[in-house]
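This is your field. Pick holes in the following sequence-structure pair:
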Amino acid sequence: MDVNRILEQLKQLLIQHREEEAEAFLLEKLGQAARLGDREAMLLLMEEAGLRGEGEEASLLNIGNALRTAGLLREAMAVFQEVRQAYDYQLPPNDFRYVELFRNMSLLFQDMGDDESACDCLERALGIASCYKEARIEVAVIYTNLAVSKLKLGRQQEAIDDLKKALSIFEMDEEHDYHYSGALSAMGEAQYAAGNLEESARYYGLALKEIERNMGRNKAYEITLQNLNAVKAKLSEHPAIIGEFESGLALCEAFYLEFGVPMIREKFPEYEGVIAAGLVGEGSECFGFDDAVSRDRDFGPGFCLWLTDSVYDEIGEALQRAYEQLPATYMGITRYVTANTNRRVGVFRIGDFYENLIGLREAPSTQSQWLFLEDYRYKTQSSMLLKLEGVDTEVNGKVFRDDLGEFSRIRSEIARYYPEEVRVRKIARQAALMAQSGQYNYQRMFGRGDKVTAKIALSEFMKHTMAMVYLLNRTYAPFYKWLHKGMERLRILPEIGEILNVLADYPNGDERIPQTIEMIVAMIIAEMKKQGLTSGEDHYLDHHTDKILHSISQKKESRETVKEALIGELIRLEWNDLIKAQIEGTEGQDDFQTYAMTQEGKYQTWNEEMLRSYISDFHRADDRDFNLISEKYGRMLKTTFPARYQKIAETLPVLSQVKEEIIEEIVGIQVKWMEELAQRYPKAAGKAGGIHTKEDQPFRISYETCQRGELSTYSENTLDLYGKFIAGLCRENRNLPEMIMTNTAQLYGYASLEELEQAL
């Protein structure tokens, strides 16, 4: 065989970009070499193709695969058997090189129609690969291939079980390669073979997305799409899989009655009256949004069993094991839980269940606890429309049984909705955010030619508008993907939902967009007036926030309530400046809840006069289109990013010598306080990072530098009030960082700073 001539022909094909012809030509010549028994020619051709491995056996494996691809199955088998004989002579039986050999042999057996032998090879490969922790993905691929062979043998349930194992491994990672799409496609085929048409369609749909993301719309995409369309056509010939049940919630209740009740009665008869049961939480079936398109990944038969701590200690683990033995499939639907899916059904301690959903083991008891959790978390326990006489409440999920009433007690407390002061503070914040994103930033960004940011601003306006409408209805807003759909059920301003539909259809820059924004704002202001939240006539929403917050003090005369409102306003102003800041060091500041709790701990130590003065500082800065948070972080760059500081130094306000001296005196006092705190509570103080400016690094800002940066933003009046505040604490021998950290610890649910230190 003239190898040089073959290589020259191959080269010419590649030069002409005829890659497919080149591949076919190479396989043809490899086949000819195999039939002639010309091993040397085969190795030379493999080397040219970049398929020659390190070592003779590795090269032989590649040759075997090439022969299999060329359709020379017997020749490929002879090569694989040669490799196996060499391995049996050279290697221990659990050497990882056997895994690749058995996988390749299984593919060959599949091509030969011998799926029993293919399964045998894959079982051998699996047994070896499972011994290697680093081979996790390899194990998942083997499970997938094993399932494919079992499907051909009619062993559907075994195939489904293997694919569940494969998918659970793949889904441990956030990013997936093409192997993941193969497992999803195989699961679609397996579910179809088992008669679970909806599940089949769901998995094929997921596979399509993964194939397109990793490989584009290739041949595999086309085949998967054809399979999906075939399943959908089959589905159209039959009634809904759920059949007699109108929703997933009804399906789950029927599953509980048919299987859950007998299980408890037979295995835990003495505990029947103390086990609460139901289905509530984050699932789409709990909200009644579980249509064929929007069902959650783990949709299917299942329920929750809630126990008090004492009962859980006695039977919790045994009850969970019994629950796991219940049928996985009911009415043709299988609940499939991935490794990345939070467990939403099964056995729970009551406190653990609520803590997972709302971060607390009991219903919130303070305004701070109510204030700093997103609406959708509370929504899991209530979808109440209005708290008005004669209006029915619509509760999320359903409790099937609760003889003790402990689970339902907490649920009912949450369902009563926010305290009015909290609702009003949230309304004020949403008003400011609507103004910032829609009335201000959209037109500004589009006018600058920044179309992407303009789109983002418009999206933010729509999101905050929907959140506002829910607040005005006195009902918790659901997770963002249900915000718009849920508006259909509201009694106040549901028509805004349709207006948002129209707004979303306008092309970017359309002159109708700002007009529509102003129309929506006018409707919101009119409703706020009806509810006695504002009396202002200004069309700009942000100018109503002071009146909204003032309504709190009118309704409740307590000085503490006024102070809480001022703290809330100050945190809102800081946050607005923070998200607009374009300064190194502000990255990652995207968690409002954490930020707000930290700042509240600090501002609880301030008096009302200090709070009002600093709020005025922000308003005056805003009038000048100046960002105080940008100034604060900009000054910190002096020791964290000196080169970048030099670029912006001239843009920062010049500080007088007197102000600098006052700031340094105050900073010196606070640093000593922090040093004392670190000696008593090293773990808690350590959470704040370093103490001294000399410890500054990029992205690591010390306490001293942070204090110096913030004090520099204070007006003369605010700095004077703050200085008097610090002097008073010195006279009383009180430590401000300790006071702040104690407040913050309590906001996070710790009884004291000592308890926080122990927890850390």
Q: What stands out?
A: Residues 420-447 form the longest helix (28 residues).
